[in-house]
């Protein structure tokens, strides 16, 4: 009987672990699918050879207006999530913390969407491999990362790989490369500033509350460049009738992607998303080559392979650092528990001595 009970407990435990693992894989699969869909959908809308609506600021504004509306409905009407209360989001905090992040997010989205007009999906994914390099470099600049020669060598290897991939690109366009590199720089700065302006102040925002605060701000920052860059061109193409199904489903995919990020990071970790992102990049490169018929050269793949190894090593180092931090935290908790037990034992011993006296 004892064995049966133990076997049942072990079976229940393994079943619970298996369920968690399967759920984690489901979250990863949903995030990869939605991220993949948004990238390909944006490429389809913006590319002159496809849907031919080359207005990246307008598309980004449609996304931000849609996400703002849904976020307000979820927070204020349906009350699905609560706003942060400790500390509360005051006007002063919003001005000093959220507005700079919103401005950087607007620039990042504008430039990254603009790059789809000039570059292939596969080459854009290769250029995005520079994100760890940008985040680390800006982190060192803002003193959020410690400069290490080993880390810098890894960043140089990633950069070298991307440079080789760029050298082998069949449809190299300097404007597109400049736009994508600017998007990477703005996004990396935004990620570092989130740590400095929000996380360090104890403000924790999930993707819904992030959209609630950031999306309207981002929309406002896009109005000025839109008025000067795209509004005159849109007036010139006054006969264009937008397809509400295409733009509606595209915006819905963009919003769903933010929810998928919430599930993936909340139920697993940000590192899991980074690793899943590497898988997504390879899938996009394969899709770009096989379906969209973009040219992917052997030099492209060789260069990206070098960058991929550098990014994989970067994620490995991050994982080891997280494990070490978790082990240190557990050891500290164990020391605290041992200390409290010793204090209790000493207290009991003192009381016993007093009673005997």
From TrEMBL:
Keywords on record: Membrane, Transmembrane, Transmembrane helix
Chain segments annotated as transmembrane: 21-41, 61-81, 93-111, 117-141, 153-170, 176-198, 210-229, 244-264, 271-292, 298-315
Main location: membrane
Membrane topology reported for the UniProt record: Multi-pass membrane protein
Listed PANTHER family: SOLUTE CARRIER FAMILY 35
Cell compartment(s), UniProt: Membrane
Disordered: annotated segments: 333-357
Superkingdom of this protein's organism: Eukaryota
One Gene Ontology CC term in the entry: membrane
Organism the protein comes from: Urochloa decumbens
Basic and acidic residues: bias regions: 343-357
UniProt-listed InterPro entries: Sugar_P_trans_dom, TPT_transporter
Residues of the Sugar phosphate transporter domain: 26-315
Protein name as it appears in the record: Sugar phosphate transporter domain-containing protein
